[in-house]
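Long-time lurker, first post. I've been practising inverse folding by hand and with some scripts of my own, and I keep getting stuck on stretches where the structure tokens seem ambiguous. Below is the full token string for one chain I'm working on. Before anyone asks, I'm not after the true native sequence, just a reasonable design that respects the backbone. If someone could post their per-position residues I'd love to compare against what I wrote down in my notebook.
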């Protein structure tokens, strides 16, 4: 599987859309990367851009977009509410898939070296790309912001890692850039029903990890307490892995607590929301909603949905789209403007880019019509997987209805666990709907390989066998996952809402049809395998599942009849 890196450069321009569009166009025209999001802020005068791609291509695109920002943005005239010290202020690389943080840091150094040497921009390497401990913290690298840059880069302590250490006319225009490798950073703003920046800052100091300076007598006007080395003593905040400040946003007419969550494992988004809400309430202020700057990982919102469903004592085994709605409404993500998960969740954007007419994205009518067409796929394997998914869906429905049944409130967690399991099985089988058709297409592609020479013939024969083996394994996976539906149905027949017992019975019928149908595909594809040992093993295991499915179906239908009768 290919490696993917996300890049999230922040540019010191959030008002001039012509400049912002030119910057975005550089990324759009770059090979091997996908522009995911462009999020300008007028008051901050800053734009956060997010793109993703393979490592070398991301580094190239990042270099080109930093070059474009150097050309278009003049830091000598820049004003904005957000801390900054360069036209491209920060440019972090974030590992997304199949790449380690250490490998990502190597790419960050590669980019930093090129920017420093070819563009003559001072570069500070931060976070996991930092070359010394004190530079890990972006705030240390950017201390004093642009206005302090002239003095700082000429000192031994803060000489840039790459690029010039002299404040030339070119540097005066471009400023510096911080390039790093980091975990996913969640940038969020908590909307407050106040216009007071001082109150917003007070809340920020309550929660951010660094906290606030300790003062003598715990008085606002008291003298700041220093330790024996002369360093300020801080009262820690309540949220680990967070940085926060308060500000006033003119375009919204409200104050916000602006927060970077640098470790969502330590502080999940919903916990930050609850804590800021609590601290605001103690100061007579209400959090009206939450704004996500840039993109968020899928898990962040799903974890939030699970948290709020649990607080409501509701089943967690609901559809993912429903969970997204719950997260949005629970944290007021649509308070200031509409929030569309398809445009704000990074995995959804990547999936959308890679989507190529999936069967499961069709309407029921279109799927039936496509099956009925003269095309050989989708065929029995895909239909079997879909029947298995329907069986899992029916059992999950019964679990969710049971979790919400009046008088059964003390059993909601029991049924929630069943519903969650059902959702996982259903999702796996929906994936196999398309994968079964893809496996058939792999066989067709292998048959289309050239066969002019003996070498080509051997390669073609080997490819056909590999594709056929895969096309045998996929329906077997469908059998295995569909067989698990029986356990769900049995639990719902025995323990679930008796008013829905017939639905659990139909789920068992679907599971039986799915197991039997997929078995036929295993047999027909295994017949063409030259590896007869493998063929015998997989068909033997498949036959065993069919025999067990036959027994279970009859037994479960008997129990359904007993409950109904």
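-- Answer (accepted) --
I ran through it position by position. Result:
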């Amino acid at each position: 599987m290919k490696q993917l890196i996300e890049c999230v450069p922040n540019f010191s321009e959030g008002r001039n859309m012509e400049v912002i569009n030119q910057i975005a166009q550089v990324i759009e025209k770059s090979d091997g990367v996908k522009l995911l999001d462009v999020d300008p802020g007028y008051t901050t005068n800053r734009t956060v851009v997010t793109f993703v791609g393979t490592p070398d291509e991301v580094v190239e695109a990042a270099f080109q977009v930093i070059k474009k920002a150097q050309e278009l943005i003049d830091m000598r005239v820049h004003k904005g509410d957000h801390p900054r010290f360069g036209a491209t202020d920060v440019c972090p690389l974030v590992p997304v898939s199949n790449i380690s943080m250490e490998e990502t840091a190597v790419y960050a150094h590669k980019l930093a070296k090129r920017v420093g040497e070819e563009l003559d921009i001072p570069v500070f390497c931060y976070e996991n790309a930092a070359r010394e401990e004190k530079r890990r913290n972006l705030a240390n690298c950017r201390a004093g912001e642009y206005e302090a840059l002239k003095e700082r880069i000429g000192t031994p302590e803060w000489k840039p890692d790459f690029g010039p250490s002299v404040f030339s006319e070119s540097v005066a225009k471009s400023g510096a850039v911080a390039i790093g490798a980091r975990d996913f950073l969640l940038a969020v703003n908590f909307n407050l029903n106040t216009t007071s920046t001082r109150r917003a800052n007070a809340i920020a100091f309550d929660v951010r990890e660094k906290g606030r300076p300790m003062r003598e007598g715990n008085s606002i006007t008291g003298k700041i307490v220093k330790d024996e080395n002369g360093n300020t003593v801080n009262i820690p905040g309540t949220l680990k892995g967070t940085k926060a400040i308060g500000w006033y946003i003119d375009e919204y007419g409200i104050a916000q607590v602006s927060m970077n969550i640098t470790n969502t494992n330590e502080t999940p988004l919903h916990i930050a929301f609850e804590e800021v809400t609590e601290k605001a309430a103690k100061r007579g202020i209400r959090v009206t909603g939450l704004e996500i700057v840039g993109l968020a990982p899928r898990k962040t919102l799903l974890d939030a949905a699970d948290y709020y469903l649990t607080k409501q004592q509701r089943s967690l085994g609901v559809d993912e789209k429903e969970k997204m709605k719950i997260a949005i409404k629970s944290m007021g993500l649509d308070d200031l403007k509409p929030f569309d998960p398809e445009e704000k969740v990074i995995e959804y954007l990547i999936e959308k880019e890679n989507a190529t007419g999936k069967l499961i994205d069709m309407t029921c009518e279109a799927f039936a019509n496509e099956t009925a067409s003269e095309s050989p796929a989708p065929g029995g394997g895909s239909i079997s997987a879909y029947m298995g998914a329907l069986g899992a869906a029916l059992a999950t429905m019964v679990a969710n209805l049971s979790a919400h049944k009046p008088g059964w409130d003390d059993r909601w967690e029991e049924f929630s666990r069943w519903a969650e399991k059902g959702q996982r099985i259903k999702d796996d089988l929906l994936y196999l709907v398309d994968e079964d058709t893809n496996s058939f297409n792999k066989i067709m592609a292998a048959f289309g390989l050239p066969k002019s020479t003996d070498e080509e013939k051997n390669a073609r024969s080997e490819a056909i066998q590999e594709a056929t083996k895969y096309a045998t394994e996929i329906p077997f996976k469908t059998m295995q996952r569909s067989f698990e539906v029986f356990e769900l149905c049995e639990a719902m027949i025995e323990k679930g809402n008796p008013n829905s017992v017939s639905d659990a019975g139909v789920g068992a019928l679907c599971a039986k049809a799915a197991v039997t149908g997929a078995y036929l595909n295993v047999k027909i594809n295994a017949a063409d395998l030259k590896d007869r040992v493998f063929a015998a093993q997989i068909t033997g295991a498949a036959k065993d599942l069919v025999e067990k499915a036959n027994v279970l179906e009859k037994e479960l239908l008997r129990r359904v009849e007993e409950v109904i009768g």
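A couple of notes from the structure itself: The first strand starts at residue 4 and ends at 7. The mean pLDDT is 94. Happy to go over any region you disagree with.
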